[in-house]
Amino acid sequence: MQVIIRPTAEAAIQLAARIIEKRIRQFPDTTLGLATGVTMERLYAILTDCHKNNGLDFSLVKTFNLDEYIGLSSTDECSYRYYMNQHLFNKVNIDLRNTHLPDGMASDLKIECEKYEKRIKTVGGIDLQLLGIGKAGHIGFNEPLSALRSRTRDKSLTPMTIAQNSPLFKRSEDMPRRALTMGIGTILEARELLLIVTGKSKAEVLAKAVEGPITSMISASAIQLHERCTVIVDEAAAERLQAKDYYYWIFESEPEWEEYREEI
Ligand code: F6R
Question: Which of 40, 135, 218 to mutate to test the pocket of ligand 1 (most atoms within 8 A of CB)?
């Protein structure tokens, strides 16, 4: 795992966007795993800007989102399908048929989850999986005690996640209490992981995920098992990390980051 600390949330998200942009330019038919949430909004705005002003081409890109609320249709403004359409898909030249989210309205959720896993396998797996972290330590909606080998399935949300996300609903009681989510096992099969974390409110959970023991109580800690995982954070989120000096040094000295150092 490599942890990269940038001075501000904007700088952290700019760096993540550059990584994704370069990946799409290098491999135009890449398969991205996508996340939703407040952190990703700015990322998708930067990618949209790259498309509009720098010709970033999404025409062959395929995407699989991590999760979707159960019971919300794609036209519901709070569904993750709606979010993705609003923040990215409708603003770039992606083929909507290449964009996938689990269907939270499916009549048989178990079959829907199996189909989702199959669809990921059919395209050859996910090349780069974007992740954010919830205050309960989740990635996707893998709430505490999610099995480290779990697959796409339905999951009950914790009170902490409900408190985190319900302000986004017009009436907080309308927030679904269950969601479909890729499992930790599904996420770990992506060829590369990119976790983006910003803000002081995530400092404690980030430290647990990155430097704490691997435990299903903090499902994000499972990223420590992945061979190619980059964690990009701002200074506020990095506040509780113990090996900060080492992480700064990685960005300043590792050849892999040279091109990004020059750009920023
Ligand atoms: C949503 C998802 C979640 C979020 C996490 C952080 O698709 O995967 O794990 O990434 O809850 O959300 P924000 O960015 O709103 O703090």
Answer: 40
